Structure formats: C-alpha cells, structure tokens
Amino acid sequence: MPELPEVHALAADLRTRLAGRAIARVDLAAFSALKTYDPPLSALSGAMVDSVSRHGKFLDLEASGLHLLVHLSRAGWIRWRDEVPALPPKPSSKSPLAARIVLDDGSGLDITEAGTRKRLAIYVVKDPLEVPGVASLGPDPMTEDFTVDELAEILRGQGRSQIKGVLRHQGTIAGIGNAYSDEILHAARMSPFAPASGILEDPEKLHGLYTALRTTLADAVTRSEGLHAAELKGEKKSHLAVHGRTGQPCPVCGDTVREVSFADSSLQYCPTCQTGGKPLADRRTSKFLK
Asked: Most buried one in 44, 241, 246, 279, CB count within 10 A?
C-alpha cells in the first residue's frame, strides 16, 4: 500500500510532469472507483493543472479550482504514459485500469488497481475537505508543528490501545500504514502490542518513539525524492527492516523476523529488538507464545 513517503514522492513527480499542462479529458474505466458525481469528471476537461499535493495518503491534483483526489488504497498505483491511446478505454472488471487522465499534449497517466478487491477511490470536489476521509485526517507527522508533546497528547487520548493500531489509524496520525508502522516500532525497539498509555509513563520510550517516527518517515521521503513513479515501489521494499521480511534475519541483531497474522493483514517484528526475545502469539488474544 502506498503510504506517506510514496504518495509524497508521487505528488512531487507528477507536479513536475504536469506543470503547465491542461487536462484534455478523464476516462473512467472502473465505475465503482468514482465516489462523487457533482462536479462530474467532464468538468475537468480543459482545466489547467495548478498543483499536485497530498493529504495523508490522498493524492490531490488541483486544476482550475477543482480537486481530483485519489486514494490508492492497498493495491492502487499511478503509471505515467508518454503517449496514451486515442480511444478511451472500455470498462472491464478484468482490467487493472481504473481511470486515465489525458493531457493536452497526448501524454497522461493511468490510475490502476491490481487484484480483485477494488478499494481505490476517486473524488472530484471543489474543496478537499468535502471528502470524508480527508476531513477526518489526524495531524501530518512530517509538519514542524508535530511535536513530541502532540504525540503525547495523542497517546493520552488512546488509553490502552495497542500502539500498532494507533500509528495506523488515519484519524489519529495521517499517512502511516501497515509497513511504516512496523518500521517505526522496530526503530523504536517497541512491541506492536504496547499500550499507548504505558508509553507515556516512560519519557525515554516516548521520545524514542517520536524520534523513530520522524526519522523513519523523513529518511523514506529523502530516499524517494527525485524518483519516478515506476521506481518507488522497489525503493520502498529494498529499505524495509522488518515489514514483509518474515523468516529473514533482522538487519540490526540478526534474529529471525517474525509475523503476527490477522484476518486481512499482518505485522512483522523482531523479538530481540522489540519484545525482549519473546515471540508474540499469532493471534490477538495472547501476548506471548507459551
């Protein structure tokens, strides 16, 4: 799933490519992807691209006062095309193409989604806050005003909720998903099941979590700067310490990276670095394997 660093880099890449361009048309290939109807997609035809930015994990293409927002969800991506076909794509449930943005010079970009679980979402609005997912976002962890005190206030409000879930919840902190929450907790040497309120009881843990959060995201953003969309997935995967590396050695201590599986997701962690050497049970109801 594209998270804050990848969406940040996508926005930067598209900002350069779309500067001074006008949208000729937007072709919808998956009707389920479009979540709004007023303004219609046709309202973007002829609009000049003013900027490309992000809100959490939402990509925001602003054109002549309208905003085309895309949430790539788990399997979505943006693919640049130097030349797009002359004919609009035919809607097909078997095609990964969700929509195509055609520019005035014949280039464009495909918004795609792999797999059968179609969750990618496209919105056309006059104000990004009209999109519920944007309006409910928590603070952006990459801004200067995201301080350790703000993180402490967030944790205080979460009580004994597990820190893994706190980091992933978009209404609490915007932009962090499954992969980077694993990476942040590994860098902080913290169990994914640690209660939020317990972290507040230890100033060293609180500051360690804050530093790990800011550093992990900042490093990923820096590595992604200047990369084209096609390069971002490979860059992300090659720099992960624990996420998606079940069974492989931890790059810090050499212990075997382990996994906890849930209904529709999983987390990865290092027992030595994060749980005092004790493997977590592969279910929510137990903290450690017996």
From this structure: 44
